[in-house]
Design brief:
Shape: globular
Oligomer: single chain
CATH topology: Jelly Rolls
Largest sheet: 9 strands, antiparallel
CATH class: Mainly Beta
C-alpha cells in the first residue's frame, strides 16, 4: 500500500528527526527508564506522542545507514541479552541497550513516532515501538526505523511483531532496493502488511520510469500478528519475495533481470490514517541475514 511519493517525502524528513517518548522509554542521556530514545516528526520540544510526553533532541549519531559486507552482529553490552544468545546472523537487535537506537538505525518519521518502549516485549526489558498519528484522517505517511546493507543477492528479515491496528491497513515490515540499472524500474518495495479486509499479506511493488508499476499481493493468513514471528525474504537470484505470518508462507515472483548493491530493511508503520486512532507496531528480537 506504500506510496512512492510518501517514501521520497519521508527521506527528506529524516534530517528533521527528534527523539520521542511514549512508553517509559530509555534515554541516550540518562540510563534510567525515565528518559527517551526514539524519533518524532520534527526537531522541536513538543507533544505528539500517544501519552502526551515531551520530545527531546536526537543523540546526533549518524552511523545508521550503509554497512559493510562483514557480519555486524549486535550484542548487548554487559548483559546476556537475546542477541548474545542467538549468534550467527549478519545483524541482530533486541532493542535492550539503554542508548543508541538512532546510532544503529535511521529514523524515518512523518506524523507519528518511533522509539524504544519498556511496556510490552518478548525479551525484557525493551522493544521498538512505532506509532501512527490519530488526528490526520486520510493522510498517508510512515513512521519507522531503517537499516541498509551492502548486499547483492538476498536479505532475510525476521522479527517478533505485535500489531494494534486502528486504520484500514498498515505495512509493518519491508525490504526495499534501487536497481543498479534504473532505465526500466526506479525502485522496488516489498512488505508484509495487515488489512482489515483480508488479513496479513505479502506485497511486491516496483515503480517504472514511464510512470507505471509492477504490483502483486498474496494473502498469507487472516490473523493479525500478536507477538508472532514474522519473516520477509527477498532473493535477487530467483526474483522472489516470501512472507511468513502465523506459520503460513506465500511467495511472489517480481520482474527478472534486476540487480542491486544495497538492500534496506524497514520496521514500523506505513499507513493511510482514518482519524480513528493510533496504529501501534511493536518489534522485538530482529534477525537480518544478507548476501
Amino acid at each position: 500500500m506504500r506510496s512512492r511519493s510518501i517514501a521520497a517525502l519521508s527521506l527528506l524528513l529524516v534530517a528533521c528527526s527528534a527523539i520521542a517518548n511514549f512508553d517509559g522509554l530509555v534515554s541516550d542521556q540518562d540510563s534510567s527508564d525515565s528518559g527517551v530514545d526514539g524519533a518524532s516528526k520534527d526537531g522541536s520540544v513538543a507533544s505528539n506522542t500517544t501519552d502526551g510526553s515531551p520530545l527531546t533532541t536526537p543523540d546526533g549519531s549518524s552511523d545508521a545507514g550503509m554497512s559493510s559486507d562483514a557480519p555486524q552482529m549486535k550484542v548487548d553490552s554487559g548483559d546476556s541479552g537475546y542477541c548474545s544468545t542467538h549468534p550467527g546472523h549478519t545483524y541482530c537487535d533486541d532493542f535492550d541497550p539503554t542508548s543508541g537506537l538512532m546510532g544503529r538505525w535511521t529514523a524515518n518519521v512523518n506524523l507519528g513516532s518511533a522509539g524504544v518502549g519498556t511496556n510490552d516485549f518478548v525479551s525484557p526489558p525493551r522493544e521498538m515501538v512505532a506509532v501512527s498519528p490519530d488526528n490526520d484522517g486520510g493522510v498517508s505517511g510512515e513512521d519507522d526505523i531503517q537499516k541498509s546493507f551492502a548486499a547483492t543477492k538476498s536479505m532475510d528479515l525476521e522479527a517478533a511483531i505485535k500489531l494494534t491496528l486502528q486504520v484500514s491497513s498498515t505495512d509493518f515490515m519491508a525490504i526495499e532496493f534501487t536497481p543498479t540499472d534504473t532505465s526500466v524500474y526506479s525502485d522496488c518495495y516489498f512488505d508484509v502488511a495487515y488489512s482489515m479486509g483480508s488479513g496479513s499479506e505479502v506485497e511486491a511493488q516496483c515503480s517504472q520510469q514511464d510512470g507505471g508499476s509492477f504490483y502483486m499481493k498474496s494473502v498469507i493468513a487472516a490473523t493479525q500478528p500478536s507477538w508472532d514471528r514474522v519473516h520477509l525474504a527477498v532473493d535477487m537470484s530467483t526474483n522472489q519475495v516470501t512472507g511468513t505470518v502465523s506459520g503460513v508462507t506465500k511467495t511472489i515472483t517480481f520482474p527478472p533481470g534486476m540487480a542491486t548493491t544495497k538492500l534496506t530493511a524497514l520496521l514500523g508503520v506505513v499507513y493511510k490514517t482514518s482519524g480513528n486512532g493510533n496504529s501501534v507496531v511493536r518489534v522485538d528480537n530482529v534477525f537480518i541475514d544478507t548476501q
